[in-house]
C-alpha cells in the first residue's frame, strides 16, 4: 500500500493517534462505568493509523501511549498488561488486514500475536518485580475477590452466594476472557470497515462478513465437548466448559451474520436494524436464539450459500 504523506503531516497524525488513546485512558480512569465500554475501542486508533501511516508510525503510537499509561497509573500494574494487549491488538489487526487475510485467519493470528506479546511482557514484569507468575496472579485475584465480595455484600447478597459466584467466575474465567477479546476484535474490524468504506476503500477479504460460516467440523467439537461435561473428572469438565463458551461465540458470529444477511437482502430500515441488534445485546433469550440460529445454519443453510437456483 503506497502512502504519500509529508513528514509534518505524519507527525500531526501520530499526535492525533496518541491523543485518542490518551482520551480513552482518561475515560477509563475518570469514569469507570463508561470506561468498560471505552476499553472496547482502545485498539481502534492504533488500527486506523496502522493502515493509514504504516508499521513504524503505529509502533510510535503504541509505545508513547503505553508510556503515558504507565505514568497515569503511577507505575506498573497487572491491569496495564490488558490495556497494552488491546493496543497491540490494533497493531496486529492492521498487519493482517493489510495482507488481505480472511476473517478467521485475521482473528486467529491476531490472537496468537497478542498472546505471545502479553506472555513476553508478563515474564519481563515478573523479572522486574522479583516475583513468580503464580504469586502475581494470586495476589491480583485476591484483591479482585475482596473488592467484588464487598460490592456483593453492599447489594445484600449473602456470603455463601458470594463464594459460589466467585467459584463460578474462576471456572469460566478463561472462556469469558477469550470471548471478550474475540468480540472486541470483531467489533473493531466492523468499525474499521465502515470508516474505510466512507473513504472509498473496500476491504475485499472482509467484504462479505454477513456470509460468514463456521467450519462444519466445529459441530463435532460441540458434541464431544458436551459429552465431556458428563465425565466424573473435574479437569475435562473445566476444559469443556471454557471451550464451549468460545464455540458459542463462534456460532453467535454466524447467527448474527444470518440476521445481517436478511436485513441486507430485505433492505430493512436502519431503525429496525438498530432495534433488533439492541434486543440481542440486552436480552439473553434473543442472544441464545441467535446462537441457535448460527448453530443450525450448518444444516438448514438459511442463506442458501453455495447453492444455485
Summarize the entry for a quick read.
The chain has helices at residues 7-30, 32-38, 43-53, 55-72, 78-98, 103-129, 133-154, 159-198, 218-228, 234-265, 270-282, 284-300. By secondary structure, the chain is mostly helical.
E-strand count:
0
Morphology: globular
Q: Percent range for helical residues?
A: over 70%
For the terminal residues, how far apart are their CA atoms? 39 Å
Query: Could you state the order of secondary-structure elements as H and E?
Result: HHHHHHHHHHHH
Overall structural domain count:
2
**SS-based class:** mainly alpha
Main sheet, how many strands, which sense, barrel? none
Number of helices: 12
Which ranges are low-confidence, i.e. pLDDT below 50, for 5 or more consecutive residues?
Answer: none
Tell me the radius of gyration.
21 Å
Mean pLDDT: 84
Report the sheet-strand fraction: under 5%
Q: How does this model look, in words?
A:
With 309 residues, the chain is mainly α. The chain has 2 domains: 207 residues, no CATH class; 100 residues, no CATH class. It contains 12 helices and no strands. The protein is globular.
How are the secondary structure elements laid out?
Blueprint: H1 7-30, H2 32-38, H3 43-53, H4 55-72, H5 78-98, H6 103-129, H7 133-154, H8 159-198, H9 218-228, H10 234-265, H11 270-282, H12 284-300
Helix pairs in contact: 1-2, 1-3, 1-4, 3-4, 3-5, 3-8, 4-5, 5-6, 7-8, 8-10, 9-10, 10-12, 11-12
Defining key terms:
mainly alpha, globular, 79% helix, 2 domains, 0% strand
Amino acid at each position: 500500500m503506497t502512502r504519500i504523506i509529508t513528514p509534518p503531516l505524519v507527525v500531526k497524525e501520530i499526535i492525533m493517534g496518541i491523543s485518542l488513546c490518551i482520551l480513552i485512558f482518561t475515560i477509563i480512569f475518570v469514569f469507570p462505568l463508561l470506561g468498560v465500554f471505552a476499553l472496547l475501542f482502545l485498539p481502534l486508533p492504533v488500527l486506523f493509523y496502522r493502515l493509514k501511516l504504516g508499521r513504524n508510525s503505529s509502533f510510535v503510537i503504541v509505545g508513547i501511549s503505553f508510556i503515558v499509561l504507565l505514568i497515569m497509573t503511577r507505575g506498573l500494574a497487572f491491569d496495564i498488561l490488558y490495556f497494552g494487549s488491546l493496543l497491540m491488538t490494533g497493531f496486529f489487526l492492521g498487519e493482517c488486514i493489510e495482507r488481505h487475510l480472511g476473517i478467521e485467519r485475521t482473528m486467529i493470528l491476531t490472537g496468537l500475536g497478542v498472546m505471545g506479546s502479553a506472555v513476553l511482557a508478563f515474564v519481563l514484569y515478573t523479572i522486574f518485580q522479583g516475583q513468580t507468575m503464580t504469586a502475581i496472579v494470586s495476589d491480583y485475584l485476591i484483591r479482585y475477590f475482596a473488592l467484588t465480595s464487598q460490592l456483593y455484600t453492599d447489594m445484600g447478597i449473602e456470603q455463601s452466594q458470594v463464594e459460589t459466584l466467585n467459584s463460578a467466575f474462576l471456572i469460566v474465567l478463561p472462556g469469558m476472557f477469550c470471548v471478550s477479546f474475540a468480540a472486541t476484535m470483531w467489533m473493531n474490524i466492523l468499525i474499521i470497515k465502515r470508516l474505510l468504506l466512507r473513504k472509498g476503500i473496500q476491504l475485499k477479504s472482509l467484504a462479505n462478513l454477513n456470509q460468514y460460516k463456521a467450519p462444519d467440523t466445529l459441530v463435532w467439537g460441540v458434541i464431544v465437548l458436551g459429552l465431556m461435561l458428563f465425565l466424573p473428572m473435574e479437569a475435562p469438565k473445566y476444559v469443556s466448559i471454557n471451550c464451549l463458551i468460545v464455540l458459542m461465540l463462534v456460532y453467535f458470529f454466524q447467527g448474527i451474520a444470518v440476521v445481517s444477511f436478511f436485513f441486507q437482502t430485505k433492505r430493512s430500515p436502519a431503525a429496525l436494524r438498530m432495534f433488533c441488534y439492541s434486543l440481542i445485546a440486552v436480552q439473553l433469550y434473543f442472544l441464545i436464539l441467535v446462537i441457535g440460529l448460527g448453530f443450525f445454519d450448518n444444516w438448514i443453510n438459511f442463506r442458501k450459500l453455495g447453492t444455485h437456483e
